[in-house]
Amino acid sequence: MKLEINIPDERIVELVEQAIVENILNNRHENMEAKYGVRSGMDKAVKEYIYTNKDKIIERVVERASIEIVKKGLPKLIENIGRE
What we know:
mainly alpha; 2 domains; 87% helix
């Protein structure tokens, strides 16, 4: 005896999503703790990245700030000089 069942992929995705949501709602407290752990780990990773690459980051920030000053500040400076 052979039994074949055809279930569309969309229906499978829907059922999996429902199961995940039910699991999340049933284990809310555990998920809150996990969320805190992920957030804490992410904070540590970002801090470590910033401290190890601080010179590159500072250079990029200064470069972008310089570009913005030229784009926005220079026209205003020229305009103010023209008024005087």
